[in-house]
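Hi U.,

Before I forget, here's the chain from the pilot set. I'm dumping it here mostly so it's searchable later in email.
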Amino acid sequence: MITNSLKRLITIAALVALTLTMGAGLACAGDGIDQENGTVKDSYTGLIWLKDANCFGTKSWGDAASSVAGLHSDMCGLTDKSKSGQWRLPTRYELSIRFGRTSGFVNIQSGFYWTSEQPDYWPNHYYAGSQSSGSSFYEKSTLFSVWPVRNAQ
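Structure:
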């Protein structure tokens, strides 16, 4: 039988352990872990993000998708041995998680970023998201920032 004193002691021990873990810089869900190769790994999703959140500047959706598809090691500060075709635009969900956890990244823009998703019945539009405004769909000729992501290898 666990007494109230023992319960308090267990709770305090758990809080101390959590505090020490966070203080040691270990990742909490969704934090970015700098991979020291131009990428940041999301500890929650396992996705690999380009560390430079503005390497490509602003582009139309078609140019953004093309640039991301051609991204490879030796571009945008990458030394991760990635190859063309491994990178993609994020989904709305992936981008929304990333906006909540931006430590470890450089050049994060305050405006919109393109996603890979297209709304039903709007063939010339794609979704874009921002930290402050959420996501909405826009004509694909609009110029927005590009933040490449890839699955862990």
